[in-house]
TrEMBL record:
Residues covered by the Glutaredoxin domain: 4-63
The family this protein is said to belong to: Belongs to the glutaredoxin family.
Keyword line: Cytoplasm, Electron transport, Redox-active center, Transport
Organism, as annotated: Maritimibacter alkaliphilus HTCC2654
Pfam families: Glutaredoxin
Name listed for the protein in its UniProt record: Glutaredoxin
GO cellular component: cytoplasm
Molecular-function annotations in GO: glutathione disulfide oxidoreductase activity
Record NCBIfam families: GRX_bact
Length: 84
């Protein structure tokens, strides 16, 4: 299974939804809380080109935010991405 990384903040509803979706699929993930260190948010923004959370990577593939993750799940494309 591909490693999953998710950049979050504690009070982000979309972050919680993304983590719930991944957890419901039995997917372990590395969570990086960008609220505790501005340098972490800058790193996320440099990698993603976006400033909002969550920002999610599956392996080296930048998925995007929760809406993007959920769209992959609904289309049946998330499981193959995770397994690649």
């Amino acid at each position: 299974m591909q490693p999953v990384t998710i950049y979050t903040t504690p009070f982000c509803g979309f972050c919680h939804a993304a983590k719930r979706l991944l957890t419901s699929k039995g997917v372990a993930f590395d969570e990086i809380d960008v609220s505790v260190d501005p340098a972490l948010r800058q790193d996320m923004m440099a990698k993603a080109g976006r400033h909002t959370v969550p920002q999610i990577w599956v392996g080296e593939t930048h998925v995007g935010g929760f809406d993007d993750l959920n769209a992959l799940e609904r289309s049946g494309k998330l499981d193959p991405l995770l397994a690649a």
